[in-house]
Specification:
Probable membrane transporter protein, membrane, transport, mainly alpha, TSUP, 78% helix, transmembrane helix
């Protein structure tokens, strides 16, 4: 990777980290397409490492507002969802699977705009975790289902709870990558080199967070979720 390419990725990571630190998700959605263009060999390892790092920072910052029970129930759904996602990837045409998953997210966004606001109760959170596991495994974008179910939460609660969920989910992903030999030393080295850019984005998010009241946070979450669904369609 040349110096110019590294600079492009670093700026992208700063913006992506600022996004995730502000609304609770979005680093992979924002950064993965750019990294794929610059150096696809860094995927998915670098995004998983950086996503875990920013989620940890946000979780520490918002620790007083984390719904640990909710994050735990989301993981109950995430584990089988990951297995289902892997099975679907192995058996279904990639384009058809991407379109189906994107359509489900866009339908959820549409219903939310129309006034549907699911209560983050046990069944809904487990179902969102299941959908997140399927979508995250099949497309590497697993945040939208969780954002839809937690869209009515306060900013600190949404950011903290989603971060706790992502930390746990990322551990599974890192273990899986290591198990299949898909996490190279070079990927880890570059991810570590990008940590200052990540921290900068996290720090700069303090300029955005005060502006995000409940309505603006919900609007941002729905907009990013819709963008993720569109990206799945385009990438697929």
């Amino acid at each position: 990777m040349s110096g110019a390419e590294f600079a492009i990725v670093a700026v992208t990571i700063t913006l992506a980290a600022g996004l995730q630190s502000s609304i609770g998700f979005g680093l992979g959605l924002f950064a993965a397409p750019v990294i794929a263009l610059v150096d696809p060999t860094l995927l998915p390892g670098a995004v998983v490492i950086l996503g875990t790092s920013v989620a940890l920072m946000v979780a520490v910052r918002e620790r007083a507002s984390i719904d640990f029970r909710g994050a735990g129930w989301a993981m109950v759904g995430r584990v089988p969802g990951t297995a289902v996602g892997a099975a679907l990837v192995a058996t279904l045409p990639t384009r058809g699977l991407s379109l189906a998953l994107a359509a489900s997210v866009l339908a959820g966004v549409g219903l939310s705009i129309a006034g549907w606001r699911p209560e983050p109760r046990r069944r809904a959170v487990v179902a969102a975790g299941l959908a997140s596991g399927v979508m995250g495994t099949a497309t590497a974008i697993g945040g939208p289902p969780m954002a839809l179910v937690w869209q009515g939460s306060s900013g600190p609660r949404m950011r903290g709870t989603m971060s706790a969920y992502f930390i746990a989910g990322s551990v599974f992903s890192l273990v899986a990558l290591l198990a299949v030999g898909a996490l190279e030393a070079r990927t880890v080295t570059i991810a570590v080199a990008l940590l200052p850019a990540l921290v900068l984005g996290f720090v700069l998010s303090r300029l955005v967070r005060p502006w995000l009241d409940a309505n603006r946070l919900r609007t941002a979450a729905l907009a990013v979720s819709a963008a993720g669904a569109v990206l799945v369609v385009v990438a697929g």
